[in-house]
Write a structure and sequence with these properties.
This protein is an all-alpha fold. The chain is 71% helix and 0% strand. It has helices at residues 2-21, 50-79, 81-84, 86-102, 105-135, 142-161, 167-208, 211-214, 216-234, 238-290, 328-334.
Amino acid sequence: MKKVIISILSISAVFFFISCGSKPAPEEAEPEAPVVEQVEEETPVEETEEPEQEAVDEEAELAALLEKIDSARNAAIEAGAQEAAPDLLKKVDEYLEKCKADGTLKENAADIIARYELLSNLVKAQQAKKEIDENDFAQYDQKDYDDAEAALAGVLASLDADGELDNSVFESAQKAYSGYNTVLVITYKKLAKDERELAYAAKKDADSVKAGVSQKERYQAAAEDFKNADSLYAMQAAKKAREKYISAKNEFSALYKEVSERRAAAQAAIEEAKKRVQESENFAVQADEESPITDENVDGIEAEDAVLLEEDNYEAPEEAEIEIAEDIEDQYEEVTETVTVPVESEEE
């Protein structure tokens, strides 16, 4: 029995060692290659130059404002501010320089421009008022004249007070100039139409003596002035239109006078020639009685076929006339030749 147990134990030991020897040895793991992480290079962020850009924008804005201010100042000078209101111009200039010096130009630019515009309107209003007063034009538009007078008085009072200027002062300056200018527009339209009537009558006189035939170039030039005047009137440039009507009227009148005088002189020559013919006939009768006329020419007596007066052989003189409508409103439809002119400023 003991032997049997020993045998069993021996067999178990054998199986144990066999089982242990049959277990495969663990495989050595191959080392993995290290993973290299790709690190993206970051693009360096450029530092923004916002302060510099803002400075550039600020400079451009100031330059634009200065250009507008300069334009308003030039307009005031062109209106005559240097001669008519030098003290006021100097004050605005000093205000401009002060704002430049203390850095307040940007916030005060609109006020500076408004002051130059006020100055411009003031000078132009005073110029228009002078023209109206010197020519008694207020009679043609009394209401607008009175309104302009009141507005101008308010502006001058505010400027004399030498205080702060509010918006009403700038508006009043514009109203004063606009009112006076309206008076001038209405006045010159009336005066232009009056001159047109006179020019038309003068043309009819010139046509009556056939001036378009005997003085063709001058007649056509006068007619061109008339047509140009109609074009100017249609473009609301009544003051310049009036000047052209006057020019046409004067030339047509001069043509009528000169041609009439020449025709009168010619008629007198004709009458004198007729008288001489009659005297010659009387002399011939008397001479024939005393001494019959032979076929030979006698001194002092024209030949039978002699031409004493040249015939007026004008061909269709009415074709030389240039047609112009009697009424200005009708002429608007008929004028085909126009003159390009700048729109007139009535205060000129």
